[in-house]
Amino acid sequence: MAASDPLSLVFAALADPTRRAILTRLAKGPATVGEVAEPFDVSAPAISQHLKVLERAGLVTRTAQAQWRTLTMQAEPLDEASAWVEQQRRQWNLRFDALAAHLETMKHASQPQHPERNEP
């Protein structure tokens, strides 16, 4: 069963290279469905499915002007995903720092003690 929370939808959408390429194209500015589909060697229904996944994740919105359907990238869900990743990175860095400190303490504790020499 697929997760349906917003963060899971964003990561699921980003898991596919075609969808990431579509977002890269839309980061340059709004485009029609045909413009977005042009560089891909896949069927129109396949592009439509990718766009539905991106829309469901809130990464793309579609507007209609006359007969044209324009796609626009929405960066807010990416900001939320980036914040989650950064939070995880900070927590893991803290854990690695604590592990390094612990290993350093163990290293010093295991070193042999040199008795002081009493020279006459």
Automatic annotation (TrEMBL):
Pfam families: HTH_20. SUPFAM superfamilies: Winged helix' DNA-binding domain. Coiled coil: none annotated. InterPro entries: ArsR-like_HTH, HTH_ArsR_DNA-bd_dom, WH-like_DNA-bd_sf, WH_DNA-bd_sf. GO terms for molecular function: DNA-binding transcription factor activity. Residues 1-93 form the HTH arsR-type domain. PROSITE patterns: HTH_ARSR_2. This is Metalloregulator ArsR/SmtB family transcription factor. It comes from Pseudoclavibacter endophyticus.
